[in-house]
Design goal:
about 100 residues; mainly alpha; 4 helices
Length: about 100
């Protein structure tokens, strides 16, 4: 798999035919990016790397978690206290139960 250059042309304008090969931009011409734009497969399926999708998904999950915590923080903290209350005696009782 070869690395492709990222094409960033803010001033790209399309012709009335909307053909990707007929893109016009002064900045792209000056930087020599038009050959790269014309070589792109505009009808192909976009390819993304799996780990990058996972990173984006993890970031979205963290944002969702943070938003839910900020919205329901009062109730969440109360239930977290009860959860800790249940976990602590269970952890203390485990070694005693294993010794029997």
């Amino acid at each position: 798999m070869s690395r492709q250059r990222v094409v960033n042309c803010a001033g790209i304008k399309r012709d009335s035919t909307h053909s990707p090969t007929k893109l016009r931009s002064k900045g792209c011409v000056k930087r020599g990016l038009l050959p790269h734009i014309t070589q792109m497969n505009w009808n192909g399926k976009p390819h993304t790397i799996r780990w990058k999708r996972l990173v984006v998904g993890a970031i979205c999950a963290m944002i969702l978690f943070a938003l839910l915590i900020s919205r329901f923080s009062g109730g969440f903290l109360a239930w977290l206290g009860w959860g800790l209350f249940v976990i602590m005696p269970v952890r203390k009782a485990r070694p005693a139960l294993r010794r029997r």
